[in-house]
């Protein structure tokens, strides 16, 4: 036992990124003198020597530690900054995990003084890397403090995305959000990531002397929220929506304590601004000059309602407003390190198509911009909005920050897979797991494997990434649909999945010792299939209705076939028809009161069955009413305040204007149930349906 205590700790698999305890030295706090004059003198001496000793008083806090590193080419010490407010409760959980795997002295909570203290403490550590756990705003905060400290060389910054948009994280291959990837893998990715450059841009604002006094606004400001941007700077419609949301949240913070409410308000604000045309005259009140070229006439000719100065390819939670390289004709593909900024304009039409793969109007690629405004206009800098007074804004390159880009590589963690040569071809069995099974059994790998449903077998080259496997799995599903049409016996059909894959399925990593983990779809091209399997692949389908979760409600037929296989063998055609009847006919069935399966599923609140029925029933079936009350399924969901189910039904096309026998719409039912958030959401969607109907009638 004593021999083990005296053994030198190797610091484990991640020794290269862990700060050894021997580097951190505690500084004894000097005793105060009784004589005030000597005390003052000592205090001044301490302040002068603080930079040498590393122990000082700043902002009333005693800094009792200093760091004396022992340089090594093999080490890449990591400094972790976590914003616990990002990503719901994810930040608070993650900070505990990092403290468990690393030295707690190298993990910092940003709500307790910000990043400056940690950066100053570790300023002289060679090969230092930084991991920012939070949204893009958290990353910008750390980069700004690094600018102030003028560290040379500047430590590269990696990102663990915990925010909502995470466009910078997407650009650098860190994905659109943290799911549940093991901390050990994250540390390996940070250690092995490539160092790239990120352009950062100055925003210099001065008052416009040519602006007329009547064009000024009482709510305007004379300066932007921040004077540098990493992602984008915009003005017009999108900034107006963001500003409205921001002002409402500042005035009534208690009303914005849930993501659901935030999204509903944001959608409502955007819809109202769209109807009022708040930014339709933007082009008349600005002048844009890019590298000496005046674009004002072009902006006015196109009647643009939003102007975007974009530094990175991603914008608005993953969209690509500049478009794809194959589409570029007069412009170069966009880069985040080329010293150029992309100028993009949007009409309401191009803004609407952005979420479905569209892009804006490409105006220019330049190194300097002079933007002149002649009235107060909403603007936003990396998501921070304001209404800026008539101004002249100069945009030019500030510097380039070092960032860590997640690289496609063989993982450095010791797995059995790494010890074997990569085969030329792999035959991999694909198994599908429902969300209900994953949430209940993800810590019990054996039971979770038993709960999976076989989907089929794919053959891939041994060096394939998961993106390639996804294409084959989607194609496999199409092949299985054709095979099932030829199969006449239910005994064979039980080994195949009867429900189509949803668009939201993702891969599961089952190679870690403790549990299964989800892999972000945006990072599939960075993972080789051999890193997570060589024999069996497991995928998570959140919309899969498992046999255990279907048909358990009283009075509801089973949606998954449970016939005796022997009966279908002797009567193959009967077995085939029974299967089709189970999937389709039961969905359209109504009882004596006129209730459908959808009514029953909503009443018991089973989201999986509701999704299944919506996917397999015609749209007209969503508005079937009960005989006694005239209620649709949406009426029932609104009455019981089931927000998720209301969202599913509305998005599938359920009518929001249909009234029950009492003349009430689903929105009025939600108001009666005292769920104002849900009522506001239904009202916004009801307006949208009315506009759609009017457009269709006009077209006819």
From TrEMBL:
Domain (DAGKc) ranges: 73-207
Secretion signal, residue range per the UniProt entry: none
Keywords attached to this entry: ANK repeat, ATP-binding, Cell membrane, Cell projection, Coiled coil, Cytoplasm, Kinase, Lipid metabolism, Membrane, Nucleotide-binding, Nucleus, Repeat, Transferase
Pfam family, one: DGKI
GO cellular component annotations of the record: cell projection; cytosol; glutamatergic synapse; nucleus; plasma membrane
PANTHER family found in the cross-reference section: DIACYLGLYCEROL KINASE, DIACYLGLYCEROL KINASE ZETA
Protein name stated in the entry: Diacylglycerol kinase
Species of the source: Lates calcarifer (Barramundi)
């Amino acid at each position: 036992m004593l021999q083990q205590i005296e053994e030198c700790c190797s610091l484990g698999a991640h020794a290269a990124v862990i700060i050894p305890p021997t580097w951190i030295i505690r500084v004894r706090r000097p005793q105060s003198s009784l004589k005030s004059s000597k005390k003052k003198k000592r205090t001044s001496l301490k302040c002068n020597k603080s930079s040498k000793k590393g122990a000082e008083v700043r902002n009333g806090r005693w800094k009792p530690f200093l760091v004396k590193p022992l340089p090594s080419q093999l080490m890449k010490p990591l400094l972790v900054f976590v914003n616990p407010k990002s990503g719901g409760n994810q930040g608070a959980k993650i900070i505990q995990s990092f403290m468990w795997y690393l030295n707690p002295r190298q993990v910092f909570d940003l709500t307790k003084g910000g990043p400056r203290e940690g950066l100053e403490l570790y300023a002289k550590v060679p090969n230092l890397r930084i991991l920012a756990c939070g949204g893009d705003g958290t990353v910008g905060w750390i980069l700004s403090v690094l600018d102030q400290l003028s560290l040379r060389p500047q430590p590269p910054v990696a990102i663990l995305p915990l925010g909502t948009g995470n466009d910078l994280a997407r650009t650098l291959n860190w994905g659109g959000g943290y799911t549940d990837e093991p901390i050990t893998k994250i540390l390996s990715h940070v250690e092995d990531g490539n160092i790239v450059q990120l352009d950062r841009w100055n925003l210099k604002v001065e008052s416009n002397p040519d602006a007329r006094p009547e064009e000024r606004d009482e709510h305007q400001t004379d300066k932007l929220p921040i004077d540098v941007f990493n992602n984008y700077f915009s003005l017009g419609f999108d900034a107006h929506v963001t500003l409205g949301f921001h002002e409402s949240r500042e005035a009534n913070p208690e009303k914005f304590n849930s993501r659901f409410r935030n999204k509903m308000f944001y959608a409502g604000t955007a819809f109202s601004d769209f109807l009022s045309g708040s930014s339709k005259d933007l082009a008349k009140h600005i002048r844009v000059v890019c590298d000496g070229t005046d674009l004002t006439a072009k902006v006015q000719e196109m009647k643009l309602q939003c102007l975007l100065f974009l530094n990175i390819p991603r914008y608005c939670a993953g969209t690509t407003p500049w478009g794809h390289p194959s589409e570029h004709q007069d412009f170069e593909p966009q880069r985040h390190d080329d010293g150029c900024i992309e100028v993009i304009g949007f009409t309401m039409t191009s803004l609407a198509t952005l979420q479905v793969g569209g892009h804006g109007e490409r105006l220019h690629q330049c190194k300097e911009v002079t933007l002149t405004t002649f009235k107060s206009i909403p603007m936003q800098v990396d998501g921070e909005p304001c209404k800026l007074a008539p101004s002249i804004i100069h945009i030019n390159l500030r510097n380039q920050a070092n960032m860590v880009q997640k690289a496609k590589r063989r993982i450095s963690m010791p797995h059995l897979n790494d010890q074997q040569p990569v085969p030329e071809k792999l035959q991999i069995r694909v198994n599908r797991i429902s969300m209900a099974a994953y949430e209940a059994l993800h810590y019990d790998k054996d039971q979770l494997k038993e709960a999976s449903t076989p989907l089929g077998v794919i053959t891939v080259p041994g060096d394939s990434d998961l993106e390639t496997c996804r294409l084959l799995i989607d194609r496999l599903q199409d092949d299985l649909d054709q095979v099932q049409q030829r199969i006449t016996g239910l005994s064979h059909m039980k080994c195949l999945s009867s429900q189509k894959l949803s668009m939201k399925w993702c891969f599961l990593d089952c190679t870690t010792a403790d549990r299964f983990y989800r892999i972000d779809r945006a990072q599939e091209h960075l993972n080789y299939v051999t890193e997570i399997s060589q024999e069996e692949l497991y995928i998570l389908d959140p919309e899969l209705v498992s046999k255990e979760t279907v048909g358990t409600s009283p009075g509801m037929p089973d949606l998954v076939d449970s016939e005796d296989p022997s009966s279908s063998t002797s009567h193959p055609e009967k077995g085939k028809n029974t299967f089709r009847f189970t999937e389709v006919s039961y969905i359209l069935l109504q009882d004596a009161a006129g209730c459908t399966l959808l009514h029953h599923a909503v009443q018991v609140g089973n989201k999986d069955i509701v999704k299944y029925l919506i996917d397999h029933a015609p749209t007209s079936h969503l508005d079937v009413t009960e005989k006694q009350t005239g209620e649709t399924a949406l009426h029932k969901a609104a009455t019981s305040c089931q927000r998720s189910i209301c969202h599913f039904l509305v998005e599938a096309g359920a009518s929001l204007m249909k009234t029950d026998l009492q003349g009430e719409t689903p929105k009025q039912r939600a108001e009666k149930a005292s769920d104002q958030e849900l009522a506001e959401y239904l009202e916004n969607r009801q307006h949208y349906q009315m506009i759609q109907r009017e457009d269709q009638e006009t077209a006819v």
